[in-house]
Input
Amino acid sequence: MSSAASAGALAPSRLRRGATRTGARIFVDAAFSVVLFVGTIVGVVALATLIWTIVDNGWARLAADPAAFLTSYVSRLPARAGIKAALVGSAYLMLLTTLFCFPIGVGAAMYLEEFAPRNRVTNFVEANIANLAGVPSVVYGLLGLGVFARFLRMGPSLLAGALTLAVMSLPVIIVTARESIRAVPESIRLGAYALGATKWQTVRRQVLPAAMPGTLTGTILALSRAIGETAPLLVIGLPIVIFTLPNDLRDPVSALPLLIFDWTSRPQPAFAEAAAAASIVLLALLLAMNAVAIFLRNRYTIRW
Amino acid sequence: MSIARRKARTGERVIVNALFACAVLSVAVTIGIVAVLLVDAVAFFRDSSLGAFLTGTVWAPGQGSGEGGSYGVLPLLNGTLMIGVGSLAVGLPLGVLTAIYLSEYASPRVRGVLKPTLEILAGIPTVVVGYFALQFITPSLLRPIFGSERVFVFNAAAGAIAVGLMILPIIASISEDAMRSVPSSLREAAYGLGSTRRQVSLRVVVPAALSGIAASVILAFSRAVGETMAVTIAAGNSPKMTLNFLTSIQTLTASIAQTVSGEAAAGTVRYNALFALGMMLFVITLAMNLISARIVRRFRQVYS
Output
C-alpha cells in the first residue's frame, strides 16, 4: 500500500487524495510513536512504583533507629526485630561465593577462549554451560540440598549455601569472562609471541590483565544476582531464626532475602514494615555493588 | 594460534590441564543436577505411579511422612502455565514495544537512560518483587479494578503481573539486539520507497527480527516457569484446577518452596516428591532453552 500510494501522490491528478492520505499517515505514525513511548514508560513507572512502595513502607521503620535495626537479632516482637544475623550471613555468603566461583569461572573462560581445541568435547562443554545458565535457581537449590547438604554431610551450613550460590553463578561468570577475553585484539597476542613469550605467558601477562575490567564487572553483576537469591537458600534449609554469627564454615547462617521472605509471609503489618526496611538495605547493597561495577567498566575498560 | 611456540614448557601443561578441569567442572554440575533429581524422583515413583503423577488432578501431600497423600501434578502444572501465560500477556507487548522504541525511535541519550533503568528492573531481587505484588499490585491495582470481594489476598494475577515485570527486560533486551542486527540497508531501501518510520519498524524490522523476538519470548517463558519467590509470596499456596486469575493457585516452584519451608523429613514420600517436581521443572525449562537457542542460531545465520 505504502509504495503505491507514495508513487501515486506524485501524479498531479491524485495530488489532493495523496495529500490527505499523507495527513492520515502522519497521524497514524504520531499515534504509533506515542503508543511505543507509553509502552516503554510502563516498565520505568513500574520500577519507580516498586521502589516508592518499598521506601514508603519501610523508611519509617528503618529511620526510627537504624543502628538497632542493623545490629539486633530477629524477634517475635516486630518492633524489636533486627537484621544482624541475616546481614552478616549474606556478607559471608557473598565473600565465600566469590572465592569459589571467580577463579574457576575465569579459568574455565581462559581455557575455552585461548587453549581449547575445536573438537566435540569443547562443543559439548560450551553447550552445557549455556544450558546451565538457564536452569531455574530453585533447581540449583535441590542440587545443593542433595549433594552438599546431604551427600557431603554439610547440612544447612555457610559452606553448603556458598557452594550452591557459586555453582549457580558460575555459568554467568564464564560467559561474561569469555566475552571480555574475546574482546582483546589478536594483535596483542601476536606482539607477545613475537617477543618470544609462550602461550601461557601471553595469556597470563597480556590477555588476562586486559580482559580483567570486563570480567570483574560481569562477576560483580553475577554476585549481585546471587546475593538477592532466596529460593536456593530456602531449599537447602538455611535457618531464618538464628541468634549467633558463624565462626566456622559448618555453622548455620541466615541471609537477607530469606529474612525478607519470612517477614513478608507473616500476617502482622509491623512485620511487613520490617520486611520493607530490610528490602531497602538489600537494594542499597545491590545498588552499591552495581555502582562499583559501572565504575570499573567506565574507568578501566580499554578501547582498542 | 599456530604462531605460539610449539613446545610448551613443562609447567604450562599442568596449568592448561588445571584450566581444562575448571571448564569440565560445569559438566560435573550438570551430572550432579541430573543425578540428584533422578535418585530421589525414582524413589518417589516407587511409592506413587508415574501415571497417577502425570494425570492426577489433586495435589494433596499427606501429613507427616506424606503417606496416603494424593500426588497429581496437573494442578501445579495448571498454576505454572497460568503464571507463564499471564506474565507473557504483560511482558510480551511491553517488551516488544520497548524493543522497537529503543531500536528504532530513541535518541542515543534516551537509550542511555532507558537501558540501565531496565537493567535495574531486571536486577531487583525476586523476593522484593513478591513483596511489591503482595503490598501494592493486589491491594492498590487489582482490588480497585475488580472489587475487593472478588480478588483474593493471594491471587494468580498479582503473581503473573509481578513475573511479567521481571521478564519484560529479558524480552526487551534480546528483541532489541535482534532488531539492531537487521542490516540498515533493509531500512534504507524501505525509506527509499517512501515508507514512514512506523512502516519501516512494523513491516521491515519486526518481521526480519521475528525469530529473535520468538527466541526471547521462549526464554522469558522458561524464566517465568522457573520463577519461585514472587509467585510463592503473591500467588498463594492452594493447588487447584482453575483458570480464574483472581483466586489463589500454586505453581511447581511454589510447591517446592512450601514443602522445604515445612521441613519435610528426608526419605519420606513428601520429601521425594520435591525431586519429581524439580525434575519436571528441569525438563520443561531445558526444552524451552534449547528451542530458544536453536532459533537464535538459525537467525544468526541469515545475516552473517
